[in-house]
Amino acid sequence: MSHDQASYLELLARGAATEAYDRPVLLARANGAGPESLATLEHAKQLALRVRAELEGRRRREAELSALFETAHDLAGLRDLDAVLRAIVQRARSLLGTEVAYLSLNDAAAGDTYMRVTEGSVSARFQQLRLGMGEGLGGLVAQTASPYVTDSYFDDPRFMHTRTIDTAVSDEGLVAILGVPLMLGSQVIGVLFAADRRARVFEREQVALLGSFAAHAAVAIDTANLLAETRSALAELERANEIIRDHSGVIERASEVHDRLTAVVLRGGGVHDVAAALSEVLDGTVEFTDSDTDLEATGADGHAIRHGDDWVAAVSAGGELLGALVLRGHPDLDPVDQRTLERAAMVTSLLLLARRSAHDAEQRVRGELLDDLLDAPDRDPRLLRERAARLRADLDAPHVVLAARIDGPGANPADRGTPGADTAERATADRQRLWSAASHLAATRSGLAAARDGGTVLLLPLGPDDTEADLARQTARQLGGTLRELVTVGASSPVPSPAGDPSPIAGAYAQARRCLDALRLLGRSGQGAAAQDLGFLGLLLADPGDIDGFVRRTMGEVVEYDRQRGTDLVRTLDAYFASGMSPARTKDDLHVHVNTVAQRLERIGRLLGPDWQSPARSLEIQLALRLHAMSVAVAH
């Protein structure tokens, strides 16, 4: 590593600004560095900037998670509602990087919403503002229970602009405003805002983060209400001590679960560790599940929902339902415990996203290694072995190359007519699903997988008691079961040592693809096979050098006759054999008169010779028909 390249490590270490990363390149250019050195230095700069961006993103996510857990800890020890709400508003303003943040609460008696806490505000008129339901951005959020965002409030026609509201907003100098509802169940109790005195665009992640703080604020208000009700009960009911103990127990359990979830996250635990910690705190059985029955019971708004004697909280991220936490056999659940279950679901979603990111990164690395084996066989074997070892793959053992493709209804573009947007989206989705399933299978078998040529290629180790045909059938069965689709798999002959000599891999992949195409043409979609399973056709696939010659020798006169005269003898011949050599069934398949079939067969007999229907000749002709169809399909 050169001194200039090492300077990027120094910049990363001291957390330098983005502009500082241009200096090593500028200095090198000023010192007369050559194009190759400048290109290397520019590449190092881009890598350093990517690392810096990743570190910044991680620090930001850590800060957000830390703030959320600090807020949860505040709730667990709630004493002063105003102090908790102020802390929530301050943290929201800091993390979103806005100039102003504020919180309003609904006044059911007056039918409007009023400012409760502000941070960064300088206008007394703004701090005392009241908004009618449906008026302004905040009134619309309070009325519709939906978040609203604008990058220029005064230019946005969606909101009901009143003189009172616009004057207060103008006094404060606000331009970009984001508001999210504070919800208790299905009831809106207020709005949490973040705003800037300049135009800006709020990202989806920032909207979600403010929504999390709003949920905490709602819990704080709800908890404060519960405590107020408890104090009232102390004066009015003889069961005051019991109520206090119950609510204290709930708060203690909330504090305990947040402490435990924090510990789970910090020690790198998984979703089942979250479920185990929650089971102890809630005194019940909590499970993580992705079954359709439990997922159907989840709510779309992120709240825990009672389902029979169980409670179900959705584990979701970015609108995608990843699973659910289910509290079994606990029908009477305290509201705070409900929110504890919901917070645990949120933590579970974060853990799942982190695990998915790590998994996707590993699969990409597996795919890149297989691409290098296919496209760059001259790579250093030592480096190949080191990369394979990091993926727990032994590339010195015999391996088989497999080509896989989804062959369910509509999977073949040739069967769907003119391709459209839906067709292209379906094909793309199928390729992604197949790659994902194949990558998982390869990881469990210490192999490699990559998306290629509209399908997926796998490189799997061959066990001592397995054959390449066995491996193809197992792979087709496993991928088909995972995707619930017909997945066809063709296998190559074994490659003795992919790391020691990668050069045969590209040829093995071509052989596997030819086997895959043969299976589809033979009507064996959804199966797996190697060339050895396909008899004489398999021998041709293993050494395809003279396939065109075989077709020409066997039925070349018929193909040439069709080409010169525009006739349909090849199609007639194929239909004749497919119908069991019955002219009557052939004419039904071709929708022509039986005399037309007879005339075409007579012409075929003159071209191929009088013995063309004998068992030996007909077998060769049928094989040539299949090979001709394969070559036409590949050409198109």
From TrEMBL:
Domain GAF: 80-231
Region (Disordered): 406-427
InterPro entries the record matches: CdaR-like_regulators (IPR051448), CdaR_GGDEF (IPR041522), GAF (IPR003018), GAF-like_dom_sf (IPR029016), PucR_C-HTH_dom (IPR025736), PucR_C-HTH_sf (IPR042070)
Family note: Belongs to the CdaR family.
Protein's name according to its UniProt entry: Diguanylate phosphodiesterase
